[in-house]
């Protein structure tokens, strides 16, 4: 059974049709690339899956059960987490504090409950170890590399044992070494049977870690191909429209 089923989904904003009858699946432990030029509908699709707003038509199912998300917390409850391009991290806080931001662990009895800082540090350390990241729980985020910041954002998704992690341009504007770290983090999620949907403009990254590549153009899906059965040249043609479909 697929972790995610997008079934004939369309989305309109007034007279503007952002998505038109898009269908695809994501299997457990599969890494799927979502590619397309600006305005292709990638961001709208991610926001639908993440629960920012519902589709105009069609349906989204998680583990075979149709879901009607109206806000992100509902999607999170179904096992869908998002790592946005800006990561939404607080620079003045530590890695552990960022991992648990909004989900803090507490100890004691009400009304005398206090933050359990050590428990959060220990849990964060375990998550970073699982991801094989060198990120340390007590380090301030503002002193971290791009790859370490991604590790913090991804560790946060592991608190809820996410089934699917949507990653929006995770390798944009970071160094070559940090790109390698992020791609390894994606492989770690895959090894733990977590599905990943990678939204990216970087062709080498997509071909390095993705099992399949979905290409969108002008709100429609124009290709859904196994990575081993396509090439960067074909995907580029599909994105630009030089190749109509495949």
From TrEMBL:
Coiled coil: none annotated. Pfam families: ABC_tran. Keywords: ATP-binding, Nucleotide-binding. SMART domains: AAA (SM00382). GO terms for molecular function: ATP binding. It comes from the Bacteria. PROSITE patterns: ABC_TRANSPORTER_2. Residues 4-243 form the ABC transporter domain. PANTHER family: CARBOHYDRATE TRANSPORT ATP-BINDING PROTEIN MG119-RELATED (PTHR43790), SUGAR ABC TRANSPORTER ATP-BINDING PROTEIN (PTHR43790:SF8). This is Fructose import ATP-binding protein FrcA. The lineage of its organism: Bacteria, Pseudomonadati, Pseudomonadota, Alphaproteobacteria, Hyphomicrobiales. The gene is frcA.
């Amino acid at each position: 059974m697929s972790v995610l089923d997008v079934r004939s989904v369309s989305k309109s904003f007034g007279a503007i049709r952002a998505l038109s009858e898009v269908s695809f699946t994501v299997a457990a432990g599969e890494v799927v690339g979502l590619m397309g030029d600006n305005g292709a509908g990638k961001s709208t699709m991610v926001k639908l899956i993440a629960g920012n707003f519902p589709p105009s038509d069609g349906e989204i199912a998680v583990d075979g059960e149709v879901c009607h998300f109206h806000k992100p917390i509902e999607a999170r409850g179904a096992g869908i987490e998002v790592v946005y391009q800006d990561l939404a991290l607080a620079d003045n806080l530590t890695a552990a504090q960022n991992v648990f931001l909004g989900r803090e662990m507490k100890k004691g009895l009400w009304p005398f409950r206090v933050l359990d800082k050590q428990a959060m540090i220990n849990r964060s350390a375990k998550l970073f170890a699982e991801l094989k990241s060198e990120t340390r729980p007590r380090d301030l985020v503002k002193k971290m590399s791009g790859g370490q910041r991604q590790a913090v954002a991804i560790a946060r998704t592991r608190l809820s044992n996410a089934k699917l992690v949507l990653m929006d341009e995770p390798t944009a504007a970071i160094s070559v070494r940090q790109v390698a770290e992020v791609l390894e983090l994606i492989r770690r999620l895959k090894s733990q049977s977590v599905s990943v949907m990678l939204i990216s403009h970087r062709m080498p990254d997509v071909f390095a870690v993705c099992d399949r590549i979905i290409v969108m153009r002008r709100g429609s899906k124009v290709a859904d191909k196994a990575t081993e059965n396509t090439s960067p040249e074909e995907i580029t043609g599909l994105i630009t429209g030089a190749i109509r479909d495949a």
